[in-house]
Design brief:
The protein is an alpha/beta fold and about 240 residues long. It is about 30% helix and about 25% strand. α6 (about 185-190) crosses α7. The structure holds adenosine-5'-triphosphate. InterPro entries: AAA+_ATPase (IPR003593), ABC_transporter-like_ATP-bd (IPR003439), ABC_transporter-like_CS (IPR017871), ABC_transporter_ATP-bind (IPR050166), P-loop_NTPase (IPR027417). This is ABC transporter ATP-binding protein.
C-alpha cells in the first residue's frame, strides 16, 4: 500500500516492504525512514534492488506489499536525463506541471542550475552535464519535499561529475528537501550524505552516519575512514 505523508516527521517511511519479480524477492521486508531535509545515499552491489526501491518511493511501481508513505511532493532524476527531444529545454523543465507552461518558473529553475543560456535550445544541443542539470531543474521546479536521484552523475566524466556533485550539495543547502541518492560511488556518498545505507539481499544491511561539516574534503582522514568502512561493507577490503 502506498500513501502520502501529511504533517509527518518523515519525508519517507517504509515498513515491511517486499517486492517480487516472478518468484524472486528483490526487496524483502525492508524498513526505511528518511527525515525531512535529510540527505541519504544508498549503495549496494549491482542488482541488489536500489533502483527498484527508488521506483517504489517515486510511485512508479505500486505492485508491492508492505507500507510505503512518501511526502506528497516528490521528484525524480534518473541516470539518463530523459528530456523529450521535440521540446525546447525550458518546456521540458515544466513538462507535466498543471496549467499552461510557465516559462518564468522554468527560467528560475534553469538559473539555479546555471543553465539560463540553454533555456531556448533543443535537448540534443546540450552536453551530458548540461542535460543532467536540466533534469535537476525539472525536478526542482516541482519544489519537492523528497528528491529521488538514481545515479544522476554516473554517466558524466570525472570533472563534470565533481561539478554536478557540488551543485547538488548547494541546491540541497538552499532547498533543504530530503534526498535519496542511489549511487555506486562510495566517495560521492560520503561527500554528500548525512547517512549512507548499504543494501544487500533486499534489505538495508548497514547504515553509516556521516557527521562531518560540509564541504567535505575527500582527503580528510575521517572521510577516508568512512569510505574504507563502507567499502568493507560492500565486500571490498583495502
Ligand atoms: N521489471 C523487472 N522485471 C524483472 N526483474 C526485474 C525488473 N526490474 C528489476 N528486476 C530485477 O531486480 C533486481 C534488482 O534490480 P535493480 O535495478 O533494482 O538493481 P540495482 O541495485 O539498482 O542495480 P544497478 O546498480 O545495476 O542499477 C535485478 O536482478 C533485476 O534484474
Amino acid at each position: 500500500m502506498a500513501t502520502d505523508l501529511h504533517r509527518s516527521l518523515s519525508a519517507a517511511r517504509v515498513t515491511g516492504l517486499t517486492k517480487t519479480f516472478g518468484d524472486r524477492r528483490v526487496i524483502d521486508d525492508l524498513h526505511l525512514d528518511i527525515a525531512p531535509g535529510e540527505f541519504v545515499a544508498l549503495l549496494g552491489a549491482s542488482g541488489c534492488g536500489k533502483s527498484t526501491l527508488l521506483r517504489v518511493l517515486a510511485g512508479l511501481d505500486t505492485e508491492i506489499s508492505g507500507r510505503v508513505e512518501v511526502a506528497d511532493r516528490r521528484a525524480v532524476a534518473f541516470q539518463a536525463p530523459r528530456l523529450l527531444p521535440w521540446k525546447k529545454v525550458w518546456r521540458n523543465v515544466v513538462l507535466g506541471l498543471p496549467g499552461r507552461p510557465d516559462r518564468a518558473r522554468a527560467e528560475a529553475a534553469l538559473a539555479e542550475v546555471g543553465l539560463s543560456h540553454r533555456s531556448d535550445v533543443w535537448p540534443k544541443v546540450l552536453s551530458g552535464g548540461e542535460a543532467q542539470r536540466a533534469s535537476l531543474a525539472r525536478a526542482l521546479v516541482r519544489e519537492p519535499d523528497l528528491l529521488l536521484l538514481d545515479e544522476p552523475f554516473s554517466a558524466l566524466d570525472a570533472l563534470t561529475r565533481l561539478t554536478a556533485q557540488a551543485l547538488v550539495a548547494d541546491l540541497w543547502t538552499v532547498h533543504r528537501c530530503a534526498v535519496l541518492l542511489v549511487t555506486h560511488d562510495v566517495e560521492e556518498s560520503v561527500r554528500l550524505a548525512d547517512r549512507v545505507l548499504v543494501m544487500r539481499d533486499g534489505v538495508i544491511a548497514h547504515e553509516v552516519v556521516v557527521d562531518l561539516p560540509r564541504p567535505r574534503d575527500v582527503a580528510d582522514p575521517r572521510v577516508v575512514a568512512l569510505r574504507a568502512e563502507l567499502l568493507a561493507h560492500l565486500g571490498v577490503h583495502s
